[in-house]
């Protein structure tokens, strides 16, 4: 902050040095120049008249010389008189300049304190994400991470801060640091939050070459005991069982997951393809294939009737899904490694993204699902809003903040729960 104020004072001084000299000197100088020009013009006219009189023999040579000398003295006196008035007027201009300088300085400081932070700048404990219009961050993810690190250094018991730090690292694809942050949150609140357990399992697996064995698999199974229809946990648990070649378990998890989505949705079709592959493997190995969906015990009520229909509706209604494509002309102008941000923001209300994914141009066209598991801030989840706008943007800089020249595409206002949303990246950010 000290460095900031030194720079600010220097800038104010530079501005005053630019503005005040004209007030001190130019005004009086211009007045004297104009008066001198008038006096010289009058002098020339009178000399011309004398010369005309001398030519017409109205004046003798001696009379002409005497009159010319008198005119010259008069002109010299006028110039001296103007110079004599300058100090008094210079004092008046100096007072005016000082007053204006004080006004500029005090107004600058007051304005910065009101709208720019200034002396009331946010402390590390108040660090938060500032996101601008269209779901893009007003501050970079790096800035947010620094703020969270400072916040946690002074308050390491802040579980919510560790979760936000984990999500920030995950957004940067720094999965090892994300898993460390999530693990700190788990230490503080225990294995009680299915979202947190699934996120920790995900980061641990990705950091280990997407290996779900060991702790990641155990974490998602724990999450499913807390919330049997947790989408991310069902997907990861199915992946873990598949990697372990426990095909019946993988089939059970994925059949439960597919029941959450509308049958015609892209998500359901993708999961069905996975289910088909698992069944083929089971048949090839002579394993019995269930003819009806296998439901883990948590999905059955005490009366023996399935609670699937009522339990499965809510998670599906709290997401949006679709396909992102890029127009051929824009694809040619993009690099395969350019970052693609897919986001959903509230149609009205906070401008920060409710959910966001990070991909690359080489992944397009890509099917996406945005839900609470892809939220950047637990206080603003997709499930808490009714109407959203979904968008996708190609960032050549990899910066979440929109840059001129980026490519983007957006949907109209849609309801949360909408599936098969077509997003075409076909416009340029001005």
Task: Walk me through this protein's architecture.
The structure is a single chain. This protein is α+β, with helices and mostly antiparallel strands and 430 residues long. The protein folds into three domains: 2-115, no CATH class; 137-290 and 307-313, Serine Threonine Protein Phosphatase 5, Tetratricopeptide repeat (Alpha Horseshoe), CATH 1.25.40.10; 318-428, Immunoglobulin-like (Sandwich), CATH 2.60.40. The protein has twelve helices and eleven strands. A hairpin with a 6-residue loop joins strand 4 (339-346) and strand 5 (353-360). Helix 4 runs antiparallel to helix 5, helix 5 (175-189) packs antiparallel against helix 6 (194-207) and helix 6 packs antiparallel against helix 7. Residues 84-88, 114-138 and 292-315 have low confidence and may be disordered.
How many E strands? 11
The major pleated sheet works out as: 6 strands, antiparallel
Low-confidence stretches: 84-88, 114-138, 292-315
Average pLDDT value?
Answer: 74
Set out the fold topology.
Layout: H1 2-55, H2 61-115, E1 131-132, E2 136-137, H3 141-154, H4 159-171, H5 175-189, H6 194-207, H7 215-226, H8 231-243, H9 247-258, H10 266-284, H11 308-317, E3 320-326, H12 328-332, E4 339-346, E5 353-360, E6 366-370, E7 387-395, E8 407-410, E9 414-415, E10 421-425, E11 427-428
Parallel strand pairs: 3-10
Antiparallel strand pairs: 1-2, 3-6, 4-5, 4-7, 7-8, 7-9, 8-11
Task: Write a compact overview of the structure shown.
The chain has 430 residues and is α+β, with helices and mostly antiparallel strands.
């Amino acid at each position: 902050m000290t460095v900031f104020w030194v720079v600010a004072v220097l800038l104010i001084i530079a501005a005053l040095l630019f503005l005040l000299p004209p007030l001190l000197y130019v005004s009086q100088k211009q007045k004297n120049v104009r008066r001198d020009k008038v006096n010289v013009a009058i002098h020339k006219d009178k000399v011309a008249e004398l010369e005309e009189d001398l030519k017409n023999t109205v004046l003798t040579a001696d009379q002409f010389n005497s009159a010319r000398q008198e005119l010259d003295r008069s002109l010299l006196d006028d110039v001296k008189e103007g110079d004599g008035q300058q100090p008094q007027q210079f004092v008046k201009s100096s007072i005016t300049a000082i007053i204006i300088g004080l006004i500029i300085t005090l107004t600058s400081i007051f304005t910065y304190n009101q709208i720019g932070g200034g002396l009331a700048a946010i402390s590390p404990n108040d660090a938060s994400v500032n996101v601008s219009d269209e779901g893009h961050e007003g501050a970079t993810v790096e800035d947010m991470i620094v703020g969270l690190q400072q916040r946690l250094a002074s308050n390491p018991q802040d579980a919510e801060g560790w979760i936000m730090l984990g999500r920030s690292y995950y957004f940067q694809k720094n999965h090892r640091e994300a898993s460390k942050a999530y693990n700190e949150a788990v230490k503080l609140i225990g294995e009680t939050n299915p979202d947190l357990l699934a996120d920790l399992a995900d980061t641990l697996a990705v950091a280990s070459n997407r290996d779900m064995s060991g702790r990641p698999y155990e974490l998602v199974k724990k999450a499913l005991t807390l919330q049997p229809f947790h989408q991310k946990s069902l997907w990861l648990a199915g992946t873990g069982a598949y990697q372990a070649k426990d095909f019946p378990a993988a089939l059970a998890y994925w059949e439960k997951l597919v029941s959450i989505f509308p049958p015609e949705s892209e998500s359901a079709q993708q999961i069905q393809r996975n289910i088909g592959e698992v069944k083929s493997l089971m048949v090839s190995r002579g394993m019995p294939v269930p003819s009806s969906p296998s439901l883990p015990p948590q999905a059955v009520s005490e009366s023996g009737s399935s609670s699937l229909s009522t339990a499965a509706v809510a998670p599906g209604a709290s997401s949006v899904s679709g396909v992102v494509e890029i127009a051929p002309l824009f694809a040619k102008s993009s690099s395969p490694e350019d970052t693609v941000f897919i986001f959903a923001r509230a149609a009205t209300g906070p401008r920060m993204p409710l959910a966001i994914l990070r991909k690359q141009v080489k992944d397009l066209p890509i099917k996406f699902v945005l839900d609470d598991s892809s939220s950047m801030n637990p206080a603003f989840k997709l499930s808490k809003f009714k109407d959203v706008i979904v968008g996708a943007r190609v960032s050549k800089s990899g910066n979440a903040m929109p840059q001129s020249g980026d490519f983007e595409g957006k949907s109209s206002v849609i309801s949360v729960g909408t599936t098969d949303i077509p997003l075409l990246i076909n416009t340029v950010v001005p």
